[in-house]
Amino acid sequence: SKGNHRHYMLKEIYEQPIVVAQTLRSYLQRMEDRVTLPIPEFDLSTVKRVTIVACGTSYYAGMVAKYWFEQFARVPVDLDVASEFRYRQPVMEEGGLMIVISQSGETADTLAALRHAKAEGQTIAAVVNVPTSSMAREADLLLPTHAGPEIGVASTKAFTCQLAVLAALAANLARAKGKLNAAEEKAIVKHLSEAPAALNGALAYDETIADMAHLIAGARDVLYLGRGTDYPLALEGALKLKEISYIHAEGYAAGEMKHGPIALIDDAVPVIVIAPSGPLFDKTVSNMQEVQARGGKVVLISDYDGVQAAGEGCIATITMPKVHPLIAPLVYAVPVQLLAYHVAVAKGTDVDQPRNLAKSVTVE
Ligand code: M6R
């Protein structure tokens, strides 16, 4: 049931602190400061290359994971949307690990990609939320998310749980590759353990975000910008908004703006900038200022330091708790989801059952 919430989507957004904690319980050994996987027999040190395949929001979780796997484990990662992977004749080397990511475990394109890669001798790991699904059954290694049933067509809690599992997988891969010492592993356990409280902190801005929904609800087009792991979040923000509010939205890597999209900027196109303070902050802010210099109306999502440093001149700011960069993609998913939700509510669309969409896409 929806409990006290008006929509399943809102209920599922609010469940994130609990379901992420529930998911992490299977991956963190907090007493020993270890990050483990529920598949202890598999030797990750033999993995030479990773291929990640998924669709929609699950694909964006995969995109965050690509940054992590390469950064922490120094293992090369290919990333594809499932419908492209199957037909482009991808090169799959021996000793390759394919990771499929899916809430339902039934998405037709992702399942077909899994079967194709399996036939090519890849080891298949599946990050899935439905443990009885086809992907869960057909994979060699099952990495479950414990988000519980997700009813809203717009994926929310499945995404943050996928990120939690993928962060744990990145840490395991890094350790197996000799790229993670005990102190670094301990730090990762600490950061991941802080995610549920930080998600709660992010949810505290629900009302603030509801109050600014009118700034977006009248727009015809909206842009989302981010850098590093905030780039996939920009894409996810745009997908969420278009799915449930029917407003045209696009996510861009902040640095790509000046290569074309900046031509779209005027005062009718709100630009949502996702930029936690940290090593990439100044770069993103300079892209943001290029937008403002052209009359663009910016909503900045950052933490206290970031909002202090760059919030002036924005039409609105959303202040997230200050978090370690590793868990920022989980935490910043919340304002992005809430913004889409409140804009859709303001427009009066069917949030849980948007037009033309199905929860599980079981046709090609
Ligand atoms: O069940 P899956 O994770 O495989 O589904 C993939 C996409 O169909 C799904 O994420 C879709 O994009 C959502 N409606 C996004 O909110």
Topology at a glance:
Elements: H1 8-14, H2 16-25, E1 28-29, E2 34-35, E3 49-54, H3 56-73, E4 77-81, H4 82-85, E5 96-102, H5 108-119, E6 123-128, H6 134-138, E7 141-144, H7 157-176, H8 182-193, H9 195-203, H10 206-212, H11 214-217, E8 221-226, H12 230-245, E9 248-253, E10 270-274, H13 281-293, E11 297-303, H14 304-310, E12 316-320, H15 328-347
Parallel strand pairs: 3-4, 3-5, 5-6, 6-7, 8-9, 8-10, 10-11, 11-12
Antiparallel strand pairs: 1-2
The protein binds 5-amino-5-deoxy-1-O-phosphono-D-mannitol.
Residues 55-58, 102-104, 107, 110, 153-155, 239, 243, 360-361 line the site of 5-amino-5-deoxy-1-O-phosphono-D-mannitol.
Q: What this model shows, in words?
A:
With 364 residues, the protein is of the alpha/beta class. It has a five-stranded parallel sheet with strand order 4-3-5-6-7, with helices on both faces. The chain has helices at 8-14, 16-25, 56-73, 82-85, 108-119, 134-138, 157-176, 182-193, 195-203, 206-212, 214-217, 230-245, 281-293, 304-310, 328-347; strands spanning 28-29, 34-35, 49-54, 77-81, 96-102, 123-128, 141-144, 221-226, 248-253, 270-274, 297-303, 316-320. The longest helix has 20 residues, at 157-176. Strand 6, helix 6 and strand 7 (141-144) form a beta-alpha-beta unit. Its EC number is 2.6.1.16. It catalyses: D-fructose 6-phosphate + L-glutamine = D-glucosamine 6-phosphate + L-glutamate. It comes from Sphingomonas panacis. Catalyzes the first step in hexosamine metabolism, converting fructose-6P into glucosamine-6P using glutamine as a nitrogen source.
